[in-house]
Amino acid sequence: MNTGVRQRRAAATRTKLIAAGLALAERTGLADMSVNLIVAEAGVAKGTFFHHFGDRSEFLLALHTEFHDRVFAVIEQSIAGMAPGRDRLLATANAYLDECLRHRGVRALLLEARVDPTIIGAIASRNKVVIERTSPDFAAMGWVHPEPSAAMWNSAVVESALLELDAGGHRPEVRAALAQFIASQVTHG
């Protein structure tokens, strides 16, 4: 078997393991997601898991990355062609919140995992990207401090996702409150 075929098979197996983890996340919490359960769901041998992931923490990082890559793709699609500003911020927030609700189990699992040092680093990196992507929206609205505003906005959106997750669904009043936060232009220093 040539190297290209082996690499494709290895990538397919890794993808299968991640898909199994995402599916399990919808049914089980972090404490119940064992390597044995993951490999059973994926239909592979236990050693295969450790060939692709050094440990459970590395696997959780892969789940975190896959979930957020998918969310970012949905967000990018929902804001394509929109000019920076309030409407784009709200579209971004709503797309994020909707995806978190669509994948409640995954989001809940990742919340449980956020005490893991590997996940903490990934969260910090992702937040930095979000701030870079949303700062232009605050600048377009004339906010004096776009980067800190984007950081606080990101925190508010994540907290909104937690509120909706706890409530078990969409909360219009939470989304209205988010919109209210950016309803007026702030121009003072």
TrEMBL record:
Annotated HTH tetR-type domain residues: 11-71
Gene3D superfamilies: Tetracycline Repressor, domain 2
Keyword Zinc: no
Domain of life per record: Bacteria
GO terms of molecular function: DNA-binding transcription factor activity; transcription cis-regulatory region binding
PANTHER family listed in its UniProt record: HTH-TYPE TRANSCRIPTIONAL REGULATOR BETI, HTH-TYPE TRANSCRIPTIONAL REGULATOR RUTR
Protein name, as recorded: TetR family transcriptional regulator
